Amino acid sequence: MDLSLHIPQRFKEQVEDLAKDLFYCAIDQPKNQDQQLNIIEPLLFKVSEGLECGVCNSKWDAFKEQLKTLKPILRLDAEAAYDNDPAAKSLREVYLAYPGFYAITMYRISRILWLLDIPILPRMISEYAHSVTGTDIHPGADIGKSFFIDHATGVVIGETSVIGDNVIIYQGVTLGGIKVEKALKNVKRHPTIKDNVTIYANATVLGGDVVIGKNSTIGANVWITQSIPENSLVTYKSDIRITNK
Q: What do you get for the CA distance between the two ends of the chain, in Å?
């Protein structure tokens, strides 16, 4: 047991406050972002000090510039939700009321920190989004443009997942690994989803060698551990029968 481990009082709440501020900054107008980032800066450095993760000025500068590039990318994610969900009445509704969009935004923010090799903080931000939305996206995952998660709850996207452009995922989908072993930490353990794929509710796709070919549709409740060719339709046949007495 590491008796020297020290976690500051209410530290997770500080990270949650930081994540909330970063969300609004990422979707704000460019003219307002610099002002918001000036307010966010001391909190981020305070959190960095608590984590002992050493966010230096150069990494902060890189993070600021990359965060300011997210707005058009997030716009594509919001438009994907609006275009594919008949219940969506406006983009404003997607931005403010769609848990899938919130989870994706938090992922894209944490992904920047992850690629800057800042430890722990990107995981804490993604876990905050997980607690709020029920969607668990590891910041190590590589996700393309126009990504839509409908309903969000129960979605799991593992660290080495690769997702292309124009992908739609419904609630309960898992992109996971077949084995959970510490020795596999540097191995691709999670699947690759190519462009224009739709994965319906509660489907499970497992394995680092598994590739779902582009333009494919994966039906609800399907369990996949092998690659699927392009332009495929994969369905699960239920044995449930309903008869009238």
A: 64
Tokens of 34: 């610099």
Q: Where are the domains of the chain?
A: 10-134, 154-237
pTM, rounded to two decimals: 0.93
Q: Distance between CA atoms of 135 and 147, rounded to whole angstroms? A: 14
Which residue, 210, 85, 234, 104, is CA-closest to 150?
Answer: 85
Question: What is the torsional sign of CA 135, 138, 139, 140?
Answer: negative
Pick the CATH number of 10-134 from 3.50.50.60, 1.10.3130.10, 1.10.220.110, 3.40.190.10: 1.10.3130.10
The average confidence (pLDDT) of the chain is: 93
Sheet (strand 223-224) strand order:
136-137, 156-157, 174-176, 204-206, 223-224
CB 181 within 8 Å of CB 150:
no
List the structure tokens of 18: 């930081």
Topology, domain 154-237 = UDP N-Acetylglucosamine Acyltransferase; domain 1 (2.160.10)
Q: For 228, which DSSP code?
A: B
Query: For residue 183, what is the DSSP state?
Result: G
One-letter amino acid at 126 equals S
65 CB contacts (<8 Å, ≥6 apart)? none
Using CB atoms within 10 Å of the CB of residue 120, give its burial: 0 to 12 exposed, 13 to 18 middle, 19+ buried.
middle
Q: 175-184, pLDDT tens digit by residue?
A: 999 977 776 6
Strand, helix or coil for residue 156:
strand
